Amino acid sequence: xxxxxxxxxxxxxxxxxxxxxxxxxxINIPNLCHKKGFEGQGRCRLCMVEVKEGKKTKIVSSCVFxxxxxxxxxxxxxxxxxxxxxxxxxxxxxxxxxxYVKALANEYNVVPPKRxxxxxxxxxxxxxxxxxxxxxxxxxxxxxLVNRGTTKKVSTPYDDASKDCIGCGACADVCPTDAISxxxxxxxxxxxxxxxxLVSCSRCGKHYTTKEAxxxxxxxxxxxxxxxxxxxxxxxxxxxxxxSYQNIY
Amino acid sequence: MSNDNESRKKxxxxxxTGCIANNxxxxxxxxxxxxxxxxxxxxxxxxATGCNGLCEKxxxxxxxxxxxxxxxxxxxxxxxxVEKTIxxxxxxxxxxxxxxxxxxxxxxxxxxxxxxxxxxxALRNIGEIDPxxxxxxTEREGYEALKKVLFQMKPEEVIKEIELSELRxxxxxxxxxxxxxxxxxxxxxxxxxxxxxGDEGDPGAFMDRSVMEGDPNTVIEGMVICGYAIDSxxxxxxxxxxYELARKNMQMAIDNARKNGxxxxxILNSGFDFDLEIVRGGGxxxxxxxxxxxxxxxxxxxxxxAKYIRSVEKGLWNQPTVLNNVETWANIPPIILxxxxxxxxxxxxKNSGTKVFSLVGKVKNTGLVEVPMGTKLSTLxxxxxxxxxxxxxxxxxxxxxxxxxxxxxxxxxISLDFxxxxxxxxxxxxxxxxxxxxxxxxxxxxxxxxxxxxxxxxGKCTTCREGINTMLKILTNITEGKGELDDLDLLIxxxxxxxxxxxxxxxxxxxxxxxxxxxxxxxxxIDHIVNKKCTAGVCKNLTSYYIEKDICIGCGLCKRKCPAxxxxxxxxxxxxxxxxxxxxxxxxxxxxxxxxxxxGGAK
Amino acid sequence: xxxxxxxxxxxxxxxxxxxxxxxxxxxAILQDVQKEFGFIPSEIMGVVSEYLSLPLSDIYSIATFxxxxxxxxxxxxIIKVCNGTACHIxxxxxxxxxxxxxxxxxxxxxxxxxxxxxEIVNCLGACALAPVMVINxxxxxxxTKEKAKTIIDEYKGASVNE
Lengths: 249, 603, 162
What we know:
- The structure holds three protein chains of three kinds.
- Chain A is built from seven helices and eleven strands.
- By secondary structure, chain A is of the alpha+beta class.
- Chain A has a five-stranded mixed β-sheet, with helices on one face. In chain A, strands 8-9-10-11 form a four-stranded antiparallel β-sheet. Chain A has a two-stranded antiparallel ribbon with strand order 6-7.
- In chain A, helix 2 packs antiparallel against helix 3 (99-107).
- Helices cover 39% and strands 15% of the residues of chain B.
- Chain B has 25 helices and 21 strands.
- In chain B, a hairpin with a 7-residue loop joins strand 19 and strand 20.
- In chain B, helix 8 crosses helix 11 and helix 10 (207-214) packs across helix 11.
- The longest helix of chain B is centred in the C-terminal third of the chain and has 18 residues, at 462-479.
- By secondary structure, chain C is an alpha+beta fold.
- Chain C folds into two domains: 2-65; 77-161, Glutaredoxin, CATH 3.40.30.10.
- Helices cover 46% and strands 11% of the residues of chain C.
- In chain C, strands 2-1-3-4 form a four-stranded mixed β-sheet, covered by helices on one side.
- In chain C, helix 1 packs parallel to helix 3, helix 3 crosses helix 4 (56-65) and helix 6 packs parallel to helix 7.
- Chain C starts with 8 loop residues before the first helix and ends with a helix.
- Classes of the chains: A alpha+beta, B alpha/beta, C alpha+beta.
- The interface between B and C is large, with 54 and 42 residues.
């Protein structure tokens, strides 16, 4: 398929979304709820673009819009920029003290009306849903999107320590606004109101993950992994390569 | 025997939700008891609220074949009715309907002004049959359309007929029904599904409820016909949680239809299989949105999805699905039986057929009204509706519920059709028509709709969730006297973004009530913001009551009824309201016989 | 988390078993549990999760999304005041004020003696009788402050006599 984006032509495959095609071609369409490896969600609305199909122009979320042959896309028309600013404004009103959202607001020169800005608001979550998706993909499903409307939030059932949570921290990892509290301190990890004992790396002694996470991976893939942290794993692999080369030459 | 049936007296007691709230069931039981051993049959009948315009004037009792309609019948009237009317054929004046337009009592409701303008297609059986009796339905051409379809028409011909009729979806968007069926029929992907949207969530709308309660078989018949047309064998009826009676009646109708061979395997020996299942909603307005509805049927939360790939291609469980509204389904059997040409003679160009409107609010005759498309709004409000209660000045109507817009006086002549309504910034929606007078504050109305939508938003997308909440905050400020002129620009600006960038219809149409009230009632907004005044007397902070000394006759009625003891004065002398004690309930304003009490701004 | 000790789990299992263990029956099962217990007890949520082989977090999402379901026990008499547009225009606010004053609780709350809960609900479809109030499924139309007091007193009296 062939389509035009901001005046230039690009080739794409049937079934691809606009966002996927854009990313492949280093075209920047701002987004918060999209991540490589995750299906587009259409939650944040930051990725809205203008699409002209035949005589009709419409506004679509590029993360879920399937590309079509012959369409003309505009990612930064005046209309889109105005919309983008308003969406960032809405996010800023929700999370006025969040660094990532504030940076976005700076980038687009968004100035919120002071009387609607609650400077004491400590909210960081923009409800992008990536954490829930990550937990789902890992298979633990410990957290979910709860309630509806403005009271919607991410939490474990009853906000209690969940028996399904393995403390892997994947949710905190994918969060675009650093909204998930993951505290590693004194050999313990606290996340989603649950306290875990941290396991130390058998090579360097650093605390790196929870017993539950290790057991989960072992059970799922029928393994008996050594307790080695990521850094040491890399070093180990490096050493093995070095060995192999030395044996060859 | 059949002759006897025709001349046999029938007493039809309305048992719709409205009349039941006024104890009509007790009336029914009393009739049954009194006429136990006679030949007069007493049939309970579920009627659409307002079948005669007035479930406020219920319980409604009709006596056939005499064609006498009685209103506000209480249990104590039953004896007199039996003696005078049933046995002696005399009418009881005080129980007859008083037509406010004609200014006289009417013997049979069909002659009332309220009824004369109506043309019943979707509501053709409501008020005339016992919805739980399949015989009543078949006596009035019920299931004849299905027989015609199964034995005389090919699926392609059925689709063609619906296309030719130019029937447009009655749920709100007005999408051509035939076109929807045709597109779905083209996908070579099975199984396919047929869905009925019975989630009627628009506040002020109850036409779908009336059809489901009062004539469930017409919905069933419509859906089976569609199944045949698109090669689907399974249907779902999504009925909102709050409609218990509708679910009950629908289920009984399904059970009866199965027993009589109209549903299930090998329908009427045609070789065609089709069955239906009811799915109960969970109390979420957003589930009226088609993709959210399907998500709900699948066992998920009611979050909609972007519809770049439409449900006719990938709907329920990613299969081709036709979803239509209750009223749309109710129109299918008549169109098949009487033909698309007949249907097109009713209504206007590109808007054929009728529409059921629920006429509610500050209008004298409230209820369900089915009129041809193209009927003027003024006819609906003043002729059928009888005008504003107490003849107060008309201010606006809201059509399309929270997705629609307000229509002011200058557009009273507007034609009620899909296109005219969307051209002035409103929409047909489900057909709710809420009539407002000068005691309605348009700013408060916009705030009310935003409050409703902020609770009903599923919360998935930023613009709807945060946008509606922000508009609500701004409007609340304005109604509390904290508004600033900048707020109007902010509302319009945000409103545009919310419309363009939201994921689904709920978000996209949410700004409509705000934008249309600003467009047509800007002065009222400015009054609130600049003059800190609410002329309708609704926004408490911006309302104060005072007594015009020159008009006050000192009757003391206000003083006696004031719940806060805030009025002082001696008999026959002008009275005076103490602002400090006044709680602004408006009781005095409503009671004053001379109109001496006026509304001022914030004090 | 609620800690309830008097939940008849066997009764819940009876209810749940009436449905096939397919995801699409989640809402229907929870509706029946809600009807039986007046809310969704946390242990029952766990039972439903097991029965349907669905994560507990999914069931919890559904229980908190749909307003027909409640995580907290409701009062014996549930008073629903309609705030649909027609009722709103005909003064549902005043009706709500009166009811909340009479019972000394806010909408969404339950009285201390467990007798009454007040809810503000969306249009009930009885618009011609606005403003409307429903108690335990019984509709009361054309409501006024005086009528509200009389009706609620009746329910109070009935509870005393039980």
